[in-house]
Amino acid sequence: MFTWPRRRRSVGDRNSALIRTVAERSAAELIERIDARPPMDVAELRGYVRARAGVSVRRQVQHAMGRNDAHETLPTESLSAAIERVVHLVVREQLLRSQLPVVRRAAA
Predict the structure, then answer these.
(1) How far apart are the first and last CA of the chain?
(2) Which residues of 96-106 are buried (b: 16+ CB within 10 A; e: fewer)?
(3) How far apart (Å, rounded) are the C-alpha atoms in residues 72 and 39?
(4) pLDDT tens across 64-99, in order?
(5) pLDDT by residue (tens digit) across 31-49?
(6) What does the H/E/C string look like for 47-85?
(7) Conformational region of residue 102, where left means phi above 0, alpha means psi within -120 to 50, and beta covers everything else
(8) How is residue 92 annotated by DSSP?
């Protein structure tokens, strides 16, 4: 019987899976910190998360890969993608919880 060869996962596939995992863990960590703070508007929240996500992402990458220099093996673009994903996940979660004041501006 013929069996299909297993598809080898490319480095990009592994990195994107790692990015998703790291971003989800980092987002959960940051959401806990944000819940203890007074409410922020969306722009302030994005800046707050971006400022703190780098440390969390690097820590989660080290934990996921089991090495202290693990973040050095990922391309900078992958770390940036993980940080941007954390920002998206945290802002989305906070909007779903309706803790953020939604500012609507009149059309110009």
Answers:
(1) 67
(2) eeeebeeeeee
(3) 35
(4) 777 655 555 667 888 899 999 999 999 999 888 865
(5) 999 988 888 888 999 999 9
(6) HHHHHHHHHHHHHHHHHHHCCCCHHHCCCHHHHHHHHHH
(7) beta
(8) H
